[in-house]
Design a protein that fits this description.
By secondary structure, the chain is of the alpha/beta class. Helices cover about 25% and strands about 15% of the residues. The longest helix has 18 residues, at about 325-345. It binds CIS-heme D hydroxychlorin gamma-spirolactone 17R, 18S. CIS-heme D hydroxychlorin gamma-spirolactone 17R, 18S (HDE) binds near residues 47, 135, 312, 328 and 339. CIS-heme D hydroxychlorin gamma-spirolactone 17R, 18S binds near residues 107, 122, 127 and 328.
């Protein structure tokens, strides 16, 4: 062990003092060195997206698309590009819980051979506001209220709903935020979106509009709101733990990178503006074309050095990619450098390993705090007339980045384009594209959040806006709030309610539900039937699912001839932590568990959260005690070693939505 300057230490336990009980000496440079550094350990957390978790991986190009973009990474199928991804919530502070109802950040840094390309997106394809000018207001409104310091990581409070109810352009995003998209099962089971319209530019300088999509190969999955609340208590790190475990166990999460490519003339025929970030392009109108696959294969070595210090910037693009005039994107391109300087403290933050490009870097930028590069040669300017190493680099007008040529004209004005005026048609499209179950969740979420608002005028104003989305939605929320439903507010542009439904907007209408990568929680005890347990474990393994054993205590359980260690004690492992459950305790323990609150809650919650439940005959009393009659529906299944495989097949549906649960 040494000091920070490398002097070897003889004692790291005791400071230098006069006598055994005397004062500490100013001379103790060892103490000063250690405490000085500690006192400066924290850097400012991100003003938004403070709570996040990152991982390393790579993007593999599946299809060469030189006709669309000259970006080096898309010139040849099979090209691998190193990647770093950071997922996050938006509103909460660094130490907030993972399961907040919130938008999730989905930020990807691609270390391409022609520079770093950051796609700094979210898990929702639209945004709350149309103009960057309103971003500080939005964030102030959603974060804890300044005069009281709460709520933490929650939009369910007056200032948020006050602001968004006064900003009808937020309504489409609110529909997503009140949907199950905002309470994902984990980062692995959510989509990502670049949100803004970008451009792809090919070698001939021709440009197309492009939207970026990340499609999880694990499928999409969310949790119930009641479950989210309980997971936050039981395991506030549920999402980061899930990602870490999946990668560490070799179950590598993957997303397909898809693009919606549109030419300008086609976009001009639509009745929404492709530059408006509160609008999406329905996949049924422009299909998503998969061009690459992202794999996360390595957890970080050090959360601070990597996840905390990674600096994403929307303006980090590479030749072949370009911006559009989306006013939110334009504002973001200006913003991110400031935030990185503020947080990381030096313009040289690009030297940090997680931020450093993997390709050669050459310029005449010099000096600054924490300069780590030895920039050699004589000239640090150009033009210059030196030669060799003294000369330094030059720009190349042919191979270098060239902004797409476009004609711009108009008067300088502070205006919102007329073409941005339709605030409700796509909100209605989103609503109608959901299943009944998803619509129920949306209505309940609005009622919960507005129910937390103390000012009735805010609720009324929001209900009036929802009336423009869908009359039944507004009425349902009003009924849940016990309020009269006001008439719809005046809309800047009359909403359309006849846009063709888009099944891709619904989680439950998107195929791909599977038990792979999910966890079955199995309640065991002394006397659990080992044949049944083994049959369950082998069926789960074939389905790609993990089994975690939960015992009455954290100690091992005795099976017929063997002992098995358990992963959890029941008191520390509520069923909200699992995707499906199996109740397989031995007869004596089953009788005892029927009297235990933690066991009854385990079962009642699994049932209430519409999970598949397998059980042996011994637990009928426990089921009854939890208010679940055995065979209540075909998601509560009595199993033996021969039939447990069928249960695992069934549980691939993940939730038994037909089970009616009244909150
Ligand atoms: Fe961000 N945003 N943002 N944002 N954003 C930040 O940059 C900002 C917006 C997004 O994991 C900050 O490094 C402005 C939309 C993600 O490190 C900051 C505007 C979308 C992350 C910032 C927006 C995002 C950020 C805070 C409106 C989805 C986390 C810390 C013009 C497409 C990245 C930081 C990570 C982070 C500014 C709007 C996504 C302050 C001014 C729209 C995923 O620079």
């Amino acid at each position: 062990m040494t000091t920070s300057t490398g002097a070897p230490l003889s004692d790291d336990q005791n400071s230098l003092r006069v006598g055994d009980r005397g004062p500490t000496l100013l001379e103790d440079f060892v103490l000063r060195d250690k405490i000085f550094h500690f006192d400066h350990e924290r850097i400012p957390e991100r003003v938004v997206h403070a709570r996040g978790y990152g991982a390393h991986g790579y993007l593999e190009t599946l299809e060469a698309i030189p006709e669309l973009t000259r970006a080096a990474l898309f010139q040849k199928a099979g090209t691998r590009t190193e990647a770093f991804v950071r997922f996050s919530t938006v509103a909460g502070n660094l130490g907030s819980a993972d399961l907040a109802r919130d938008v999730r950040g989905f930020a990807v840094k691609l270390y391409t051979s022609e520079g770093n390309w950051d796609i700094v997106g979210n898990n929702i394809p639209v945004f709350f506001i149309q103009d960057a000018m309103k971003f500080p207001d939005l964030v102030h409104a959603v974060k804890e209220e300044q005069d009281r310091g709460w709520p933490q990581a929650a939009s369910a409070h007056d200032t948020f709903w006050d602001f968004v109810s006064l900003m009808p352009e937020s309504t489409h995003m609110l529909m997503w935020q009140m949907s199950d998209r905002a309470i994902p099962r984990s980062f692995r089971f959510m989509e990502g979106f670049g949100v803004h319209t970008f451009r792809f530019v090919n070698a001939a300088g021709e440009s197309h509009f492009v939207k970026f999509h990340w499609k999880p190969r694990q499928g999409m999955q969310s949790v119930a709101w009641d479950e989210a609340v309980k997971i936050n208590g039981a395991d506030p790190d549920f999402h980061r733990r899930d990602l870490w475990h999946a990668i560490q166990s070799g179950d590598l999460p993957q997303w397909d990178l898809g693009v919606q490519v549109v030419d300008e003339e086609f976009a001009d025929t639509w009745d929404f503006d492709i530059l408006d970030p509160t609008k999406l392009i329905p996949e049924e109108l422009v299909p998503v074309r998969v061009i690459a696959r992202l794999t996360l294969d390595r957890v970080v070595d050090n959360v601070f050095a990597e996840t905390e210090q990674v600096a994403f910037c929307t303006q980090n693009i590479v030749p072949g990619v370009d911006f559009t005039n989306d006013p939110l994107l334009q504002g973001r391109n200006f913003s991110y450098l400031d935030t990185q300087l503020k947080r990381l403290g030096s313009t040289n933050f690009t030297h940090l390993p997680v931020n450093a490009p993997r390709c050669p870097v050459a310029h005449f930028q010099r000096d600054g705090h924490m300069q780590t590069q030895l920039q050699r040669g004589r000239a640090n300017y150009e033009p210059n007339s030196f030669t060799g190493e003294d000369r330094g680099p030059r720009a190349d007008r042919h191979s270098g980045f060239r902004t797409v040529e476009r004609a711009e004209s108009g008067d300088t004005r502070r205006v919102r384009a007329e073409s941005f005026a339709d605030h409700y048609s796509q909100a209605n499209l989103f609503w109608r594209s959901q299943t009944d179950v998803e619509q129920d969740h949306i209505a309940s979420a609005f009622a919960f959040e507005l129910g937390k608002c103390e000012m009735p005028t805010i609720r009324t104003r929001m209900l009036a806006n929802l009336g423009n989305v869908d009359a039944t939605l507004a009425e349902r929320v009003a009924a849940k709030l016990g309020m009269p439903c006001p008439s719809p507010s005046a809309a800047a542009q009359p909403p359309r309610h006849d846009l063709p439904e888009s099944p891709a907007l619904s989680i439950l209408r998107t195929p791909g539900a599977s038990l792979a990568g999910r966890t079955i929680g199995v309640l065991v005890s002394d006397g659990t039937d080992p044949a049944l347990l083994e049959a369950l474990e082998s069926a789960a393994a074939s389905a790609g699912a993990r089994v975690e054993l939960i015992g009455p205590t954290a100690g091992p359980v005795k099976l017929k001839r063997s002992k098995r260690a358990v992963h959890h004690a029941l008191a520390a492992a509520p069923s909200v932590l699992f995707d499906a459950v199996a109740l397989l305790p031995g007869p004596t323990a089953a009788a005892e568990l029927a009297e235990r609150k933690s066991a009854k809650d385990f079962v009642a919650d699994a049932f209430g959260h519409q999970k598949f439940i397998a059980h042996n005959e011994a637990v009928e009393a426990l089921l009854e005690a939890a208010g679940v009659s055995p065979g209540a529906d075909d998601g509560v299944v009595s199993v033996d070693a021969d039939t447990v495989g069928d249960f695992v097949d069934r549980a691939a549906e993940l939730r038994h939505w037909a089970r009616v649960v009244r909150p």
